[in-house]
Structures are given as C-alpha cells and as structure tokens.
Amino acid sequence: MSVQTSPQPADVTPAPAPFLDVRDLRVHFPTEDGLVKSVDGVSFTLEKGRTLGIVGESGSGKSVTSLALLGLHKGTRAQVSGEIWLEGKELVALPETEMRALRGRTVSMIFQDPLSALHPFFTVGAQIAEAYRVHHKVSKKEARDRAVEMLKRVGIPQPERRVRDYPHQFSGGMRQRAMIAMSLVCDPALLIADEPTTALDVTVQAQILDLIRDLQEEFGSAVVIITHDLGVVSDIADDILVMYGGRRIEYGTTRDVLKQPQHPYTWGLLQSMPHLTGDVGERLDPIPGTPPSLINLPAGCAFHPRCAYKGWVHEGRCTVDRPELRPVSGTGRHIAACHLTDEAKHEIRDGVRKGA
Amino acid sequence: MFRYLIRRLLAAAVIMLVITTITFFIFFALPSDPALLACGKTCSPSRLAEIRHSLGLDRSYLTQYWEFFKGLFAGRDFGDQSVRIHCGAPCLGVSFQTDTPVLTTLLSDFPADLSLGLGAAVAFLILGVGLGTVAAVRRGRAADKAAVGLALFGVSVQIYFIGLLLLYLFVDKFQILPTSGYTPITEDPAGWFKGLILPWATLVIVYLAMYTRLTRSSMLEVFAEDYMRTARAKGLPAAKVVLKHGLRAAITPIITIFGMDVGSLIGGSAVITESVFGINGIGKLAVDSVQNSDLPVILGTTLFAATFVVLANVVVDLVYGLVDPRVRLA
Amino acid sequence: MTRSTRRSRTVALTASAVMIALGATACGGSSSNSGSGTPGKGGTLTVLDKADFDHLDPQRVYTTEGSSMDEEIVRTLTGWDETGSKPKLVGDLATDTGTPSKDATVWTFHLRHGVKYQDGTEVTAPDVKYGVERFFSSDINGGPPYASQWLVGGADYKGPYQGKELGSIQTPDKYTIVFHLNQPVADFNETTAMPGWSAVPKAHDTGSTYDTKVWSDGPYMIKSYTKNKELVLTRNTHWSQATDPIRQQNVDEMDVKFGQDEAAIDQQIKADAGTAQTSIQQWPIAGSDLAQLANDPSLKSRYYKIPAPGINYLAINTTRVKDLRVRQAIEYAIDKTTVRGAFGGSAYGDYATTMLSPGIGGYQKFNLYSANPAGNLAKAKELMKQAGDPKLTMSIAVENTPTHEHFADAVKTALERIGIHVNISPIDAANYFSTVNNTKNQYDLTWGDWIADWPNASTVLPTLFDGRLIKKNPQANQDLSYLNDPKVNALIDKAAKMTDVTQRNAAYGQMDEQIMKDAAVVPLMYMNFSDMSGSKVGGVIPDTILAEPSLVHVYIKH
C-alpha cells in the first residue's frame, strides 16, 4: 500500500475568496516547561450562512483556535502565526486597535459557561447595552431598548423587566440566551459558540441549539460551534473539523464525517455519542487514555498511544511517521490523517458494529 | 434593608456592651491601682483610702459598673469636696487624671483622628488600588516589580522610622513644611493641610503596601475570570476592561479591609504616627490612659474605638450590598 | 521626687538612634548660625514636651517638669537662686528664708509687700495658708506628703473644702505666716521652696480642676491650657521685677506643646530649623540619643547637662539575702561600667559609691567597696567562699524597657561569675514602682532611682531606709532593701531632732556609710539629665534642684 503524500492538501485549493479562510494557524505558548503548541497548523474555510463544528477533547486546541479568531491572543505571550482571512482582512497581523473594532461587531462569541462569562456585578441589560454601545454611537436609552429587543428575540419573557436583573437571577438556559443576545447585538457576520450547551441540561441544550440555528437563518451569519460532543454538531453543522493535539485529524462535510468516519479517534467520539436509534443498553465508550502533552506530542501519529488499531499498520509506522491528511476516496473534500488502509478501516468498522 | 440595619445596630450594641464589660473587669484584674498612682510616691494607707473613696474605687465592682451604665443614659455628678463636675448623658465618666468628662476629651481629640484617618485612608486606597492595578496589568514587568518592591519596602519599614525620616527631611532639613502638629481645619485650613501632609504620607507608605498587594492579587484573580474575556470579546478598550469590569470585581475584598482600617484609624489606632508628629488624638489618649490607670478614659477610648470599628463593619456590609448584587441584603 | 511615672519608651530605639546619626552627618553644620543675637525682651519660647504635666496645680505637682513650669506661674515662700556656682536658698514670697524657733518646730515667714496676682490683687498670708491647706484634701492628690506629715493636727485634717482651717498654720497679720510642726525640721525652709508652699486665692480655687486654672502671682499666667495638647503662658502684667529675686520676664509668651515623641523632639531641636530655634525641651534627651548628642561639638552651646540630686541604684533585699558576705560580694561583683553603658554611657552620670549624690547636703565622699568601677572579682569570690559558696538563685526586678533589659543582663553576667544565678523579672514600665513598692511583691534585687525633693539627705535616706515605715505603708514602701537596721533607724531619729544643719549633715553622712556597711544597696550612678534648646534660646540656667533647664531667666535672641 503506497502512501499518498500531497504537498497541497485538497482543502486549500478552494473556491475563490471564502468568507473565512484560516490557513496554517499556529498558536504557541512559551512556558517554563517548554513550548506549548496548542494549535499547530490548522486550516479551514467557512462561508456565510454556513456552520462549522470543531470537535475535540479538552486540550485539543479548539478553544484556542476560537480565541485566535477573535484576536484575543493579542497582547499576551502567545505566539500566533499563519493567516486568518475574514472578508478579505487578515486578522493575525491586524493591530489590536483595528481588531478591537471587529470584536463583538464582526466576530462575536458565545462562551461556554454563561454564569462565569457574564459579569456578576452588572445587570444583564447593562452588559448587552454595553456591547452595543462599544460599536454604535447611541444614547444609553437607545442601547437599553436594543438590549430589551435582543432579549425578546432570544425568547426571554418580560424582557423589559428582566433587563434590570443580574445574571444570578437568571436560570441557566436564560443566561445562555442572554449571552447569545449579547453576542448577536451587533449583528456579527461570524459567530463563534464555544461549548454553548455544555453547562445546560439536555432539554435546554436542544432549545439553545434551535435558537442558534434560527438566529443564524435570520441573521445569515457564519457560525463556528466548538464542542467535544459530536451529537451537538450533527444536527446543526454543515462541516465538521476534528482536532487532536492541536492538529486537524479529520475534516469534511458533516454527512461525510458522520457516515464514513475515517479516523479511530473520530470513531471513538462517535461511540461516546448517545444514539437515539441505538439500543437502550448500549454502552457509551469513552476513548481510553488521556489527551497528549502539547509540549511533547508523541512521535508519529499523536493518537497512537491511545489507538487500538495501530497493530493493523505495518512495521509500527504509527509510532514513527506522522500521517498526513489524505483525501478520502469517493468524497468531495473529506480528508483524514491516519495510516490505516481503507480496507483495514472497513474491516474494523464492520467488526466494531458486530461486536457492539 | 431597614430591618437589617436595625438588626445590625442591635448586634452592635450588644458587642459594645460585651467590650465594655470585658474592659471594665480586665481593668480591675490588673495590678495597677489608680488611687495609688494619684496618691503619689509616698502614700500613707489612710490617704490612699481617702483617694480611693473620692475616685469611687472603694465601692464594689458591680456598683461601679452599674454607676457607669447609669451615667451613660442619665448622666452623673462627680466630685464631692472641692468641686462638682456635672457629666451629662451619655456620660463616659470623668478622667481620674484631668477631672474632665471623658466624652469632652474624646470629642476634642476626635477631629484630629478623623482628619488623620480619613485623609490617609482616601490617599492609600486610591494609590494602593492604582498601584496594584498597574502591577497586575503589567504583571512580571518592570512596573509590576517596582510596585511590588515599593510595597515590600512599606511593609518592612516601621512607622516610627518613616515618621522620623519624613520629619527630618521635610521639616528639619529642607524646611518645606512647618513643624508638624494638628491645627483644626476651622482655624486654619491651610495649616491643617500642611500639618497633616507628613502624617498622611507616613500612614500611606505603611498601608499602601497592603493595598497594593491586595489589589494586585485580587486583580490577577479577576483577570482569570471568564467575564473579563467576555468584556474583551465585546470589543471594549483594554482600559475599560480593567477599570470597569476588573476593578469593580476586584475591589470587593478590599472594601472589607478598608472599612476595618478606616474604622480603627478613626478610632485612634495610629498611635505611633500621632506620637511622632505630635498629634494628640484618641490613640495617644488611649495609650496614656492605660499607663495612668485612668479607668474612665480607658473605658471611653475603648468604647469609642469599638464604636468605629463596629460602625465601619455595618458600613462595609451596606457598601458590599451596593457593589455586589449577589449579596443584596434582605 | 519623681521625674514622672510615665516613662515608657518601647518603640524602636534603634530607629531613633539611626535618625539622629543621620542628622549628624547630613547637617552637622546647621547650628553654625547659633550664638548670634543678643538677649532681649519679646518673642515666644516654645517648650516641647513628650507628655503633659501630670499636674500643674502647685499642691499636686510632683514631677520635675511640672515643678519647673510652676516656677513661672507660682511664687513659693522660699526659692532657689541658681545663678551662682551653687544653688542658694532665698526668700521668694517671703522676705527671707524664714525664722525657725530654737527647736525648729515653729517656722515664721514674713511676706513681701506688693506681690500681685494676675488680677492685680495682693498676695496675702491667708492665701498661702489656704494653699497649704489644700494639700490635705483627697481631691488635691498626688503632691508630696510633707505638709500632712509635719504640721500639727495634719493627720486628722481633711482640707479646706468643708470650711475647716488648720490651726497649726497661723496668720497673725496679712504678711506673716507661722507653721507649727510636730517635730523639728531643720531644713523646713527648703521644703517651702517646693511649689505647694504658695498662695492660692480661695475665690479662684477650682478644686480638682485647678490644674488648668492656676492663678498666677509669677511673671507668667495661663492664657490657655488644653490638657495633653498645649499650654500657653503669657506675661502677667501685674508681676513686678522689684519684688522677685529669682525670676525675669523676658519672653512675651511660652508655648508648651505636649505629645510629641522624645526622639522626634530631639531630632527637631538638634536640626535647629524654624521654630525649633526658639524651642527647648523639658523631658531629658532620650537614652538612645544621649551618647550621640552629648558628644556633638556643634551642640555644645545649647546642650545642658544637669547633675540631678539623684541616684540610680540596685537595692538588695536584706530580708531575703540575709548573709552580709553575699551582699558584700554583690557590691564587689557588679560591673558599673557595663551597667552605665546600658543606661547611655558617661553622659548619663558618674559612677556612684554612696547613696547621697555630691550636690546633696550630707554628702560625704567615701567608697567601701571596689575602687575600680568595673568591680573586684577576686574580692567578690573570696567573700562568696567565706559565705560557704552557696549555690544561689536571685530574682531581679527591672522595667520592661530595652535599657533596663540591657541593665539586667549586665547584672546577670556579673553575678553569674560569682556563682549567683539571676532570673530577670521585667515589669511593665508604667506600673513598675506601684508594683515593687507593694510589699506583696518582693525580689532579691530591685532596681530603683530617687531624686531628692530638695538637696538634703533628709529627703533621701529617711525615706529610702527607715525600716519602720515598711509596715506603715505596705502599698507604698520605698525601702526596696527592706533594711530595718536599728543603727540606721537611730541615726534617722537623731538627725531628725538636730537643728544645726552642719551637725545634721554629718549625721546623714554617717547614716549613708552605715547603709553601705550593711551592703543593703549598690549605688550605681549619680544621675545627670541632659536637655537641648534651639540656638536662639538664651538665659537657660541648669537647675540642679529639679534637674531641669530652668526658664526663670530665659530669653529669645534677636
């Protein structure tokens, strides 16, 4: 079996000037113990009105990637390289003052835990109004009206009254709605949602995801959803990017990735996802082992210490050679980085299905 | 809110009662004898007994205690021979040493403590929080190291030394400031200010350290909070992120300590500063009263200081409620 | 007399020493502009005091600072003219130093005519009688005990406030006052130089609050007095130089400021800037600053080293350390050089070998023990050997101040060398004397100091060594040696009856020697007190009676 190495990965020769184009993004943090390579050569594209799901365990680099999109590493010790093109502007080299003008207005973010992400000492209304006033020359009154309007839009009852409440007076779901209201207050072109439902209970999760989808349709924004849960993105995302150890290991349309997952890690993620169609007694298998050190990634395939199938690859290549991203045959732009042959993959997946 | 206040004030009254009682009985447990002290170096037992009687010390502790409380609410008359001294309610007693009603002395000393304490407190709060903020923002860099170093200096030097040094430099050597001392603001506002510059500076140097460090660590803690990232993600300018979102949260733990400090400073805890700069405040009064075994003044100064500390606590709680909506008071 | 019962200095001794040293290097020449200017009238003298006088009421004052200040306000029957080489007793309110009866039990004084109070009325004998009677009221406490000890009927008299008079003070006419004493007192006219032997006009007596309202018949009167803050004296325009042999009235005002730390005052006066140039201190220079300032040549013209009629001593409790040889061994063993070092070195005072200091009537120079102030270890060991080399452990009572702790260490080191183990008992400085003077609290060794009320042995030895007084004043016992030697007691009684001062002084010298023979006490230093003034202060007289800088001739140089 010959290894196909492509100097030009298939996905970086896309349609002309996508809305968001991330190229070879690297975010490194110098520490006393060494250089932490949180994000190491990530690329993807996203069009307006589309949704990308970035999936991975904690420490896979997905949140760091999202912060890079907001330019929030500027002024810290983080070393950021690569390119982020947004509507024709390159963000990595953009000065902080100009980046600041984009933050909250063009790119905005929904954070994971709305209780800690909202300031406990300011009213919900004031925080939303503030986000609006940063980018719009309006009176306090107008900003306040806008906040009420946004609260209404995200489905908070009695917004005129709740606008004066503090975050701790809101329920978890309401807080996340308020957080969403705040991030959408300036009609951003790119919305990043970092684990938007993790802190919420299941019924509320669905509501929030519905809300994001509805609002996306309404505003026409591009959305990046970051999650460790494939289930979250399966309904909502158009594309899925799976990250491991700061790198991409699989990237393609949601349909391709879910139907024909190529990487043992993605298999693991899928297995740890509850299926409504699956047996009641089906066991959710978390991936055994722990995420790798970002200072000293394992040689070869970063996943190999946790991979149950490295024996299927000849001569221990998994521990020596780093697998390149290869297009998956028979798909448009589905790529994955694994030494396993297609045959082996089929065999394994069949076996897994049977065994389960 | 109103009920809370009533409750707190009642609790404060109980605390005061306890403090007074403890002070009162500790005093009698001490070996010092105010009558003996008043009597002089060569004192005959009969004379001692007379003095003890005229000071009211020959009665039982409980009677004296009761008299003290009666005085608080109804006033008392003192002196049985040479002069009658009326001490109106709330009467804290009459000094063994000066035969002046304690409250009169306290009230005449109080403006000095108020000026010294409040002025210094405002200065060290603003400077300390400012320096601490700068240190936190510039963490690990020169400005941080300078601020932390400055704070360390302030913590390690003694008030006594700093006071003398400032006095020497600004009064004796360069003669920029007049010989210190307290001038009432009503007499001469400029003199009041000039006379207090060095005492303020002394207290600032000493207290600044704590406030800088406190602000710095509190700020760093706040910087790690998610809502700070949210504030940046909104596109707020860095200064606004730090000063509005950061400071608002970081200031809460500082308020508590600040309240206590102001309370105790106003209540007369700046004894050494008072002494170095010749400001006759409640702190000196308290120390002198202990040395002179002047029970009414000991009780008075203790009660006075306690009042301010307790009061400061109540104010802190109220302010806390204003700052942190999560602890709004029922 | 006590210097003050408030003698605590607990903070940062080293800090002040550092500051003074800094001052010495940084502005050593600051006093180069001193010495200029001539005596003249006018100006304000600032007096910087650590603390307020405990009393200014002449019948209550018993501290040297208060007594010295009272000299400006209150005239006493007799007084000390200290312009000469030795203090000379003169009549003050009285025309002369009084006339005793043959047995010195009746003393008669004639008052000067035309001595005026601040309101212009004349001072009369009944006012003096009234003033002395005030001593007896328990409201007027704190003063010396002599009036009640000596005046006939004094034991039962309770003061003038119930309308009763004391029969043993007679005023046959407006200008004559006669005192009837219950025992001969040959130096009674020295007693009457104390502030309480003065006039108080009944109409202006405010009883226990008279401290701030003292009615003046001296050159200065109280303009304002806020306790613990400030006392301002201003000229008494009714005072006339012609009637006063002791005082002058040069400055317009005296502004006494209380409450500044000793070291801060030392530093300020040394630096001699601004009002410090016209300032003087009454509290002595802080011990920590003493060595530094005493040896500063630039301060010479405004540094006053005043020998006090006082003694710093270590009492040996003779009822606990019963073996005379052990007590003698202690006399030989103590190293007075290290002891004096602890108290501030040579500026503090000269090594003492007697309980009476050189300025005191009755003083005789002798030394029964080691000629070398560092002690005689061989002799001390020999005495211990004679005593059978007992293994002894002794307690020593000192104040809980750094100075005293150093002192106690010096004693401990010295006595360990002769096999006596010493346990140090530091006592709160403010309560030191009320503790050790209480017979319930006894130690083997007790530190003490004593300043004579007037420069005669009669105010030292009978007070400190009359063993018969121990039982009488169990809470105010001054006999820290608990010495009750019949020989000493007999000498006390004998001297008390003597009306001839020379003979009496000889008897006191004998008494001093007997006490030293008993080895009841180790005299350590004859004390000096040192004060400074600003460069524009002139006319300061070292007052060796009170050990204060006397202000009676003070002026501001212009």
Tell me the fraction of residues in β-strands of chain B, as a range.
under 5%
Radius of gyration over C-alpha positions of chain C, nearest whole angstrom? 24 Å
Q: Which ranges of chain B are low-confidence, i.e. pLDDT below 50, for 5 or more consecutive residues? A: none
What is the helix fraction of residues of chain B, given as a range?
A: over 70%
* Total of DSSP H or I helical runs spanning 4+ residues of chain C: 16
Report the total helices of chain B.
13
Pfam family, one (chain B): BPD_transp_1_N
Main location (chain B): membrane
Transmembrane segments (chain B): 9-30, 116-137, 149-171, 191-210, 254-277, 297-323
Family (chain B): Belongs to the binding-protein-dependent transport system permease family.
Describe this entry's structure for a reader:
With 356 residues, chain A is α/β, with parallel strands linked by helices. Chain A is 32% helix and 20% strand. Chain A has a domain at 17-88 and 206-276 and 286-356: P-loop containing nucleotide triphosphate hydrolases (Rossmann fold). In chain A, the strands form 2 sheets. Chain A has an 8-stranded mixed beta sheet with strand order 6-7-8-3-9-10-12-11, sandwiched between helices. Chain A has a 4-stranded antiparallel beta sheet with strand order 2-1-4-5, covered by helices on one side. In chain A, a hairpin with a 7-residue loop joins strand 11 and strand 12 (335-336). In chain A, helix 4 crosses helix 5. The longest helix of chain A is centred in the middle third of the chain and has 18 residues, at 202-219. Residues 1-10 of chain A have low confidence and may be disordered. Chain B has 2 domains: 35-91, no CATH class; 103-327, MetI-like (MetI-like fold, Orthogonal Bundle), CATH 1.10.3720.10. Chain B is 74% helix and 2% strand. Chain B has helices at residues 2-29, 34-39, 45-54, 61-74, 102-137, 142-156, 159-173, 189-223, 226-233, 238-269, 271-276, 282-291, 295-323; strands spanning 76-78, 85-87. Chain B has a two-stranded antiparallel ribbon. The N and C termini of chain B lie close together (6 Å). With 558 residues, chain C is an alpha+beta fold. Chain C contains 16 helices and 21 strands. Chain C has helices spanning 13-26, 64-73, 125-134, 146-150, 188-191, 262-271, 287-294, 324-333, 336-343, 377-386, 402-416, 432-436, 461-465, 469-472, 486-497, 501-517, and strands at 44-49, 78-81, 88-91, 99-100, 106-110, 169-173, 176-180, 220-226, 230-235, 253-258, 279-281, 303-316, 349-351, 392-399, 420-427, 445-451, 521-532, 537-538, 541-543, 548-550, 555-556. In chain C, the strands form 6 sheets. Chain C has a 6-stranded mixed beta sheet with strand order 13-17-12-16-14-15. Chain C has a 5-stranded mixed beta sheet with strand order 8-9-10-1-11, covered by helices on one side. Chain C has a 4-stranded antiparallel beta sheet with strand order 4-5-7-6, with helices on one face. In chain C, strand 8 (220-226) and strand 9 form a beta hairpin. In chain C, 60% of the residues are buried.
